[in-house]
Amino acid sequence: MTELANQAQTLLALHTDPQLLKVVNVWDAISARVVSEVEGVTALATASHSIAAAYGYADGENIPVELMIEAVGGIVAATDLPVTADLEAGYGNPRETTKRAIGVGVVGCNLEDQMKPISEAVNAVEAVLDAAQQEGIDFVLNARTDAFLKAGDKPHDEVLADAIERGRAYLATGAPVVFVPGKVSEDDIKAFVDAWGPQKLTLIGAPGSVPLARMEELGVARVSFGPFSQSVALMALQDLTADIVAGGGLPADFRVLN
Question: Average of pLDDT values for 11-40?
Fold first, then answer.
């Protein structure tokens, strides 16, 4: 088996293990290296929002796909860990974008449905999985539904039912996991796990989220942190700058990481 196929199998096993997979999202080579050097980190995930911001683009497929793939390739080259990439909605061509991502060493991805008609969203999932099959790897597609993010004033029970229906369709198509970003309660998690089974749901960690230990108890497969990890890094940089302007200097626990 090729190294890429081995990494894909490793990433898939990390998602199916009852132990919650915790991935801190990265956006360039140095953030990838720093995160991957932490003991206990087993995989990396990119954040499209963070990569776009690093290049001066707004989130939402505004960054050219060539530049996104180049950035993702730099992240893959900076680590020996399996990398899953945030490919937004596929940049107009989910099949081709997936092939290009696999070409730079990616073994999994997020794919947004953007609440498009479910048949269209399923077709995109099929395209990603077919592209991966042609490359001969067990690609870990984290099929994302934006039902909660785009709920608006829709009653919660309808939003939950919509997310469950979409997730079932993506799982039936072959996606191993479904990503539901947004404000998700413990009761929501229970409903998803009841509907899909354990180790099928992935979530984003945000302020006020269900604690990670409880997510694991409930059968969540993975938690990631999207652009929040970049915000934490930028907060530290801004705080340092403010301290220096005020006459201070480097923090007492300063250490060289690059």
Answer: 98
CA dihedral 7, 171, 115, 86 (to 10 degrees): 0
Q: Count CA atoms within 13 Å of residue 158 on its CB side.
A: 6
- 42-68 CB burial, b ≥16 within 10 A, e <16: bbbbbbbbbbbbeeebebebebebeeb
Of the candidates 46, 26, 47, 53, the one whose C-alpha atom is nearest the C-alpha of residue 37 is 26
Bridge partners (DSSP) listed for residue 110? 86, 142
**3-class SS of residue 184:** coil
Question: Which of 154, 85, 80, 76 is closest to 115 using CA atoms?
Answer: 154
CA distances from 14 to 11, 18, 20, 129, 252 (A): 5, 9, 8, 19, 37
The half-sphere exposure of 203 on its side-chain side, counting CA atoms within 13 A, is 27
**pLDDT of 77-120, one tens digit each?**
999 999 999 999 999 999 999 999 999 999 999 999 999 999 99
What are phi and psi for residue 56, nearest 5 degrees? 90, 20
Position 236 scores a pLDDT of 96
Q: Is the pTM of this model over 0.85?
A: yes
User: What pLDDT does residue 161 have?
Assistant: 98
